[in-house]
Input
Amino acid sequence: MTITSAVSAARQILTRLHDVMASRSHAQAKLNTVVEVIAQGLDSEVCSIYLLREGMLELFATQGLAQEAVHVTRMAIGEGLVGTIAGNIEMLNLAEAAAHPDFSYRPETGEEKFHSFAGVPIVRRERAVGVLCVQHMDPRRYEEVEIEALQTVAMVLSELISNAGLVDEEEAAGLSPMMIGPQRLSGLTLVKGLASGAAVFHQPRITIEHVMAEDRDAELQRVYLAFDKMREQIEKMAAQAEFGVGGEHEEVLETYKMFAYDEGWSRRIIEAIDSGLTAEAAIERVQQRTRMRMRQIDDPLLADRMHDLEDLSNRLLRIVSGQMGTAASMGLRQDSILIARNLGPAELLEYDKRRLKGVILEEGSLTAHVVIVARAMGIPVLGRVRSLRAAVREGDLLLLDGDQGNATVRPVPAATEAFEARFAKNKERQAAYAALREVEPFTRDGTRIQVLMNAGLRDDMPNLALTGADGVGLFRTEFQFLVSATLPARERQTRLYRDVLDSAGDKPVVFRTVDIGGDKVLPYLRHNDGEDEENPAMGWRALRVALERDGLLKVQARALIEAAAGRTLNVMFPMVSEPWEFDAACAVFEGQRKFLKGQKKLLPEAIRYGAMLEVPALAEQLDLIAPKLSFLSIGTNDLTQFLFAADRANPKLAERYDWLSPAILRFLRRVQLSLAGHQVDITVCGEMGGRRLEALALMGIGIERLSITPASVGPIKELVRKIDLPEIREAMAGWLSAPPPSLREALTRWAQERGIECD
Ligand code: PEP
Ligand code: MG
Output
């Protein structure tokens, strides 16, 4: 079936269904004709409709299966293929139905001669009220266009069924048993922190009243107008972006604009209207399709972009249906926790920040735009919470524990009290750390430890003043690339780097050139041959990409040099494995410096070059590049994964190897010693340095510079002030030459004996 024939098949079916439903016959007679019409229209041997009755999915009408089975065959939600479709609200398309693990054979239907099976849920108010399915004798999967036609028909059926009073909507929409009493929901922490508040649904439900169009041209007109209005809104939002022009939000809004003007999207909506749907139904239809696609994409970054599209689609639906308000437009009346399937970053920015305390999402990922924005706003986010919207009601009290990765709905008073106590303690601790902002971190014996912070977004920069960090030891420049829909232009890069330097004032900032590839895939920058890598962490990433696509590095070099005009530029390269890679990267920068000098441009006062030590091979050749290095930054996140051959993203290995192992600490000490006598600053910039016990061990082997997440700056400063360096160095020297069974335990005991609090 071609797209055109699918559209016209759907249109024909819809026109005939309209007539059938307008006729004065009985509900059952109507359904019998409906399955006939659909079977014929889709050229299908079987067409059946199951509807929800008394909590079971009952075969209400069929063309092709045994008529004796009608009102006899019943499936529970979750049982058999039909129950699975209704339970998951997801279609199934199978070449061989019996091969599916959920297949449940019902002899009374006589379905054994049919092999292929496709079914879609019939949805009313976000709940499945039935299932529409087709079957064929020959074992083949249905084509996408056929599934689309089936879904269009299912949408129309849901309206017809509801008008005919064939399902008890109260029953379908009724409270599930999950809605009563306290309940613990677990998910994935996307932004850490604690929050409590009343549940607020981001999207008050939009009900699509009419699915079948009376006047195609009028529907087209409505959708065109809605598109215009939506584009206007996006442009307006871009003009008054919350954090000023040039923020990450600008990048995000660029992505929005790209979708808002995407012709493929509007064309599909128009096609759906052509097949006979109203504007609302057409938008929803295309959105369903997007969601289906989204589930099949395993590229998280691309999936995030699809969420942006979903955000826009909701906006369009609200405009066209006149049901404009999200919870944001109605205003938050109390401390609130926002509930959504997913959320667009622009939508998040519409909320009153004083009352928005936390966000819980059914979907979401660490790299999603909305999460990046929430992190910058300091709002805890819990993601990947299954059945969220089935378990929470508007107004329910919620305790969001973004440290433990869970949330409690309708907590008992004792749980609320315990939570409040933790919350207060947390606040107290934060206040104590904030008080250390102006205090310089000297150890008891008088050594000044450099406590720097890691950053990646413009919005991270205020943390420098808030925490009193000594500077930015690692600025992850790839973040700008990750939040953009297209490669950021040079001017845009320059602007960001200049803003970052301006906001840092006298404090140093170390820019790391883009570390893309690995788990940070950019859809617009694929490997030459476009193939997925088996081992992306050890693949075409970081400096390897930058040196091969040296246009990319040249642009970045020029942006950095221009941004640092008249100041010192600190730049470092990620994943240096061989000295020549460092030399080649420096040469690109020097080439740009020379070019700009020729152009009589104001240059940086100095460029200080550094390498990241993340690949163990470099440790064996440090003496060779030491004379050229101003500094070395040890990225322990990557370094440990390579030392232990343990993927840092693999949750099964997350607890297996300890940063406090003699292997790592001996390795780091050796690096430290091999650079003794050279003028090279050594910093540790991996997550390890932000944890108290690990930081203690690092200082114990001679590390005096740590670059860590801003939230750790206070706790680490406090630690520094409690330790006596000669004492911990002596202890570490002993442990590393004759390691105790557990270095972690030994260190913990050592710290406890001295009244030093550890994590
Ligand atoms: C590291 O690998 O330790 C590091 C700081 O870089 P990233 O976490 O960005 O890979
Ligand atoms: Mg790294």
Notes: The first strand starts at residue 46 and ends at 53.
